[in-house]
Amino acid sequence: MTGKTRKCFFGLKVDRQLDGDKMNRTFVDRVMTEGGEGVAIAACMQCGTCSGGCTNIDRMDLSPRTLVLMVQRGEWDKVLQSQSLWLCTSCYICTSRCPRGVRPSDVIEAVKAIAIRQGIENDSTRFNQIFVELIQKRGILFEPELMQKYGGISAMLEQAELGIKLALKGKMSPFPAKIQDPTTFSQALEKAAQS
Amino acid sequence: MKYSYYPGCSLHTTAKEFDMSTKVVMRELGIELEELQDWSCCGGSVAAGVSHDVGMAMAARNVALAQKQNLDLLASCSGCYNKSARAAKALENETEKQKITAILSDMGISISDSNIRVRNVVDVLANDLDLTSYIQRPLNGLKVACYYGCLLTRPADIAGWDSPIFPMSMDRLAQACGAEVVDFRSKTKCCGGPILVSKQEVAFELTKQLLDEAQSLGADCIVLACPLCATNLELRQPEIEKKYSVSYQLPILYITELIGLALGLKPGKLGLNKHIVSTQSVLAKLGI
Ligand code: SF4
Ligand code: SF4
């Protein structure tokens, strides 16, 4: 590689080619460690099939295809700052369609976890963290608590009408359910999250 | 046939009718359910995106409990089903299995080699038996849109019993019940469930598109198998109507409720009176 930007065949820029020497193993490895062995980032051939079917592609700043490329290239900032992480609904359309078994949805899931650990903060990271925290607490999610912790009193009030309707139908209890031994459960998960 | 039944957080709260209808329909069809003892939340679509290991362990815990009961795990909720099946698959991988085993053993739970399968109620109803001989009250004249969403049949290496993009099992079940199934093109488009709270506007837009299509097809109701989809499509339907100045009043039924009606079971026993969007129009159409 010369480093100069010259055109290749068919007007493809050299830096758009899937050249192995642009790959940044550190980030790729980190994502693969987080996401498990199923995540096959290096296999991506940039066909764009994932982006073509993506639920929220028209709202994303990085398409799933570009996101995978940026992970390959080790573009930490671009990837971790991307709004796409929080617009992804984990719908698995990309993973179902990818002809190379890359599992973009799992790549994104792993990147989300890394972003949270890096200290990225927004409404989505806050919600996701509270969600997990509350499951850890009792083993069973108590939705009113989730709404209260995430949105405060105003969110509670906003949802009060629906909450009352649900309660009248016997579909919402004022008391949270829990598993037999929430303490051991939550300690084990706490330890797993630290490691 | 007997299963360990995993209701998950929603079926004891907002999706009570899914719990009720699953139980009575299964009993009617001669399938035994034994509730999974001390089950916990599967972590949904969120947990593994905060920590992969935590998410996998949350879901694997229920698989381990089903192993202990030595019964295939049956989940009605698509989300619980998907995450449990994903965990069961992860346990086939040595590295993942080691990590998960370590976390679960800290909880005092052990993983055995007992090979239990994780099933969804739609899979069992569509593929293990033939409903036709059980039908007591054919749902003639009822037009339904079957909505599969994301987690019921995707991805294929986790579900694999129906197409991830254009599944047909619920359509076939509804047809066996005598209902007319409309050609619902959005059947596997996402409703935005996991981002409903943090990105409400986006989720509302996605859900609105589904309601719009079902309405334009003249569907009397949408039929589904996911409480999170139902939260968007039913519980938030009035808000969506208000926000976009539209009117749907479209009943959202769980597939087990629809089947229960065709089996001749009483609507009250199936939980049809528990809905936020009234199901009266469906019952009226059927003359019940
Ligand atoms: S579909 Fe797969 S191979 Fe194609 S761009 Fe997306 S991740 Fe890469
Ligand atoms: S999982 Fe995320 S990236 Fe993949 S298609 Fe769905 S929304 Fe798009």
Automatic annotation (TrEMBL), chain A:
Q: What are the protein's UniProt keywords?
A: Iron, Iron-sulfur, Metal-binding
Single GO MF annotation? iron-sulfur cluster binding
- Organism domain of life: Bacteria
Q: Name one GO cellular component term.
A: plasma membrane
Pfam families assigned to the protein according to its UniProt record, in alphabetical order: Fer4_8
Q: 4Fe-4S ferredoxin-type domain location, by residue? A: 42-102
Entry protein name? Heterodisulfide reductase
Q: Which lineage ranks, top first, belong to the organism behind this chain?
A: Bacteria, Bacillati, Cyanobacteriota, Cyanophyceae, Desertifilales
From TrEMBL, chain B:
Q: Know the name of this protein?
A: Disulfide reductase
Q: Specify the domain of life of the species encoding this protein.
A: Bacteria
Q: Which UniProt keywords apply?
A: Oxidoreductase
> Care to name a GO molecular-function term for this sequence?
oxidoreductase activity
Q: One Pfam match, by short name?
A: CCG
Q: Do you know which InterPro entries this protein is assigned to? A: Cys_rich_dom (IPR004017), HdrB/HdrD_reductase (IPR051278)
Cysteine-rich domain residues are: 4-82, 144-233
